Amino acid sequence: MTTAVLWFKRDLRLADHPALMRAVEIGDVIPLYIFEPDYWRLSDTSGRQFSVFAEAVDDLRGQLRAVGSDLVIRCGDAVEELAKVFSEADATHLISHEETGNDWTYSRDKRVAAWARDAGIIWQELPQSAVVRRLGDRDNWSKHRNAFLSKDALPPPKALSPVSIESDPIPDAPPDYCPQRQRGGRTSALETMESFLTERGQSYRKAMSSPVTAEHACSRLSVHLATGAVSIREVVQRTAREQKMRRGTRDGWLGSLRSFQGRLAWRDHFTQKLEDEPELEHHCLHPAFETLRPRPADRATLTAWENGETGVPFVDACMRYLNATGWINFRMRAMLMSFASYHLWIDWRDSGQHFARAFTDYEPGIHWPQVQMQSGTTGINTLRIYNPVKQGLDQDPAGVFTRQWCPELAEVPDRFLQEPWRWDGEGRVIGRTYPRAIVDLAQASKQARDRIWAVRRDPSFGIAAARVVVKHASRKDKERHFVNDRAPRRGRAVKPDSRQQSFDF
């Protein structure tokens, strides 16, 4: 009987799992997950992410035991552990899903491929989303996505053969204080999806922008999509069923569900960018911005931003919330990144590392294209410099969120809460229990805008920007998830797509 090793990575479930179905077709299946210590020492990974993955792995182990199998858990270098498992199982096939990860996982997979060739192992990687490996061009990508998602989600197997290979214990998580993070695993994923689609999501479209309401109104599925505890196809199809059931209603549900489907589409769109150009994790999408900001960043300035101690209340409140929960809604992510990039003039590669570590839902394919977009280095997107005072007034008008996360400001009157430097409490609160603002917002904003536009006005700027558009911009699709951002023809300007600036989960 032929034996296949099924290597789980960011696909910690049994349902809708093409790689699992392929392994079953081959013969006996050895399910395997490898905790790789070197990965968890990277500058973009964290203990909070590890904890979520560990919970999802434990949940997966329970799923496998329920169908008569088990999960082999190993800790170590992937190539070394794969070699051991293949020797112990006398296996001939390695099956896994394609993964759009960071540069480290990309290099790891190349090492695995070299080992498999040398060892005579057949390694098959199957797509688990609409992301296309070695995509020729973007023109028909949305059609491919729609076709992939329209296929029925695969059911989990009813039974698998027993596994007798020994496992390592799940290792302890690296220290990382994140007291209010979400729990990982498929059980939590399905509960979260159902509560959003049947209860919490009615006000999604209106409530997603404010951190006051987004925690409840957003789907909160991003962490489960990042670990693969639920597949993108499962979420899209379950949402579509809810849309069909609510057709003809006027209670806000249809608009919210339509918006959610659009954001699921943008998720695939951005992941495809990193799949097509892995270098954008390290280099500006438009090369003209490569040396725009100094590196390394000023350590004191970066630390103040990371810890929520910039003296700008709404920025600090949002960052402290993120550090404590591992999640914050997308508009606030964009504002925090914009503030770091423009007001503090920090290079996206420095601020992006902390952002990646802070998110329990860190997914490189979304993170690095978005970090660059919010920093203005893509060369093709709208320049968006958020005013954090205005955002505080708009998104937290009663000041409840700001006061909760910046309790030092308790004495500051409401009318000065978002601009405490205008209050006469110098020495009592400002500069004593709460820091003075580390930057003049208006002056920093103007300087940043002038610097960016000086680069964009260069006559050669448009040549490289056109190449970025051809390779990465969206194309209009019949489902109206995307707009036409293709290269301009006959001198026409590219119309920016503002929807790329916001896709909350």
Structural overview:
The protein has helices spanning 18-26, 47-66, 78-89, 103-119, 141-150, 186-198, 204-207, 211-217, 222-227, 232-245, 253-276, 299-307, 313-325, 330-343, 348-358, 364-375, 388-395, 400-405, 441-456, 461-472; strands at residues 3-8, 28-35, 72-75, 93-97, 122-126. With 505 residues, the protein is mainly α. It has a 5-stranded parallel sheet, sandwiched between helices. Strand 1, helix 1 (18-26) and strand 2 form a beta-alpha-beta unit. The two termini are 44 Å apart. The model is unreliable at 483-503 (pLDDT under 50).
Keywords:
mainly alpha; 505 residues; 6% strand; disordered C terminus; five-stranded parallel β-sheet
Please describe the topology of this protein.
Layout: E1 3-8, H1 18-26, E2 28-35, H2 47-66, E3 72-75, H3 78-89, E4 93-97, H4 103-119, E5 122-126, H5 141-150, H6 186-198, H7 204-207, H8 211-217, H9 222-227, H10 232-245, H11 253-276, H12 299-307, H13 313-325, H14 330-343, H15 348-358, H16 364-375, H17 388-395, H18 400-405, H19 441-456, H20 461-472
Parallel strand pairs: 1-2, 1-4, 2-3, 4-5
